[in-house]
Design brief:
AB_hydrolase_fold, transmembrane, globular, 371 residues, Serine aminopeptidase S33 domain-containing protein, transmembrane helix, membrane, alpha/beta, 2 domains, 13 helices, Rossmann fold
């Protein structure tokens, strides 16, 4: 475990040395709503500020690679959590789109910049490009906007894999971490500047590698906790907590924000876990014993919850992309099932495995749901 922890520290240090810094936390109050973001700037502010906004099921951390590249080219950059996401205020009940657009104008609280530009991914593009910011100063990633095709950048990972455009959703999800998309977007946003080239790819690779190292450290710790003698319920809770904290630290200011902050997150997690445990207890009463049964129950409940949330939550500003909630839950079920198997002890049963799997899946579902 010590070796993995050292590897993580080295990866994060290398990332910082190559321009992948942590940024400066900023808080902007506007119209009674709080918008939080990460600001990247030199000691003396640059002439140009770029405001970046993420997609509908993401957080500000998903666009850090873009801000790192903007900073490498000499401009300042602030990436924000739009309302209802990450650490910003919840969505207001009235005029949510208008409120979200007004909240994007964080530049007005960050000093007197001569030149303010905008880049947004998916929902963020819809909110900002040609709306909160003029088309001439905006770039949209992965979303049509009323600014002309020259102001829009599309991912093409699916084509590189030989897939048809029906599989564009794969490219769409990966756009924030596709080096060619990041480079093209910043080229168009800051014409005349020089790309850092391979450094973009290296920074993205280091972000994922550091996350992987911390994930491995969390899994090793969770396995140790689950295999200790004593109350299994307590050990499951502790192992889930430890693993999630490791995932949160691994993705901290690199890939995602994984700490629940909205009241709805608690309701989603409690609902999925409680339903899963009730079914698992009944399954044990009727004779189910093998741990894989609990994992299957947890996956079915989590996927069903994701489907219900997709069907019952209408968020017009992200269109049909809320279907990504159940679509992404499917591969997450596979990943979490693998984590459960790796950390499982010889004493595990259907209820313990159901508790471990459902808690992790519920957290993912809660954090993917816009609130």
């Amino acid at each position: 475990m010590v070796v993995v922890a050292v590897a993580w520290l080295l990866l994060r240090s290398l990332l910082a040395a190559l321009g992948g810094g942590l940024g400066e936390s900023v808080v902007i109050e506007r119209d009674g709503h709080t918008t939080r973001g990460l600001l990247f700037r030199a000691k003396a502010p640059a002439r140009t500020l770029v405001v970046a906004a993420h997609g509908g099921l993401a957080t500000k951390e998903s666009l850090l690679s873009l801000c790192w590249e903007v900073r490498a080219r000499g401009a300042d950059c602030v990436v924000v959590d739009v309302l209802g996401h990450g650490t910003s205020s919840a969505l207001p009940p009235h005029d949510p789109v208008g409120a979200m657009r007004r909240a994007l104008r964080v530049d007005r609280g960050l000093g007197a910049y001569d030149d303010v530009r905008f880049v947004g991914h998916s929902m963020g593009a819809y909110l900002g490009a040609g709306a909160a910011f003029p088309c001439g100063a905006s770039i949209a990633i992965g979303n049509p906007v009323p600014c002309g095709e020259s102001r829009i950048v599309w991912g093409s990972v699916h084509r590189s894999l030989g897939l048809s455009d029906r599989f564009y959703v794969l490219s769409h999800v990966l756009e924030p971490w596709t080096p060619s998309v990041v480079e093209t977007a910043v080229d168009r946003l800051l014409p005349g500047t020089h790309s850092s080239g391979g450094a973009i790819t290296i920074r993205i690779a280091l972000s994922w590698a550091s996350f992987g190292a911390m994930m491995l450290l969390g899994l090793l710790g969770a396995r140790e906790l689950r295999r200790r003698p004593g109350p299994r319920g307590l050990h499951v809770f502790a192992s889930v907590t430890l693993l999630w904290l490791a995932l949160s630290l691994g993705s901290y200011r690199t890939l995602w924000f994984l700490l629940p902050t909205q009241g709805a997150d608690v309701a989603v997690v409690a609902g999925i876990v409680s339903v899963t445990l009730m079914i698992a207890w009944v399954a044990r009463l009727v004779g189910a014993r093998v741990p894989i049964s609990g994992t299957i129950i947890a996956c079915i409940v989590a996927e069903s919850a994701a489907m219900v949330l997709w069907l019952t939550n209408h968020v017009p500003l992200i269109g049909n992309l809320l279907i990504l909630l159940p679509l992404l839950t499917l591969p997450l079920c596979v990943v979490v099932a693998m984590w459960e198997r790796v950390t499982r002890s010889a004493r595990s049963d259907v209820v313990e495995s159901a508790a471990f799997t459902s808690a992790l899946l519920a957290l993912f579902v809660a954090l993917l749901l816009p609130t």
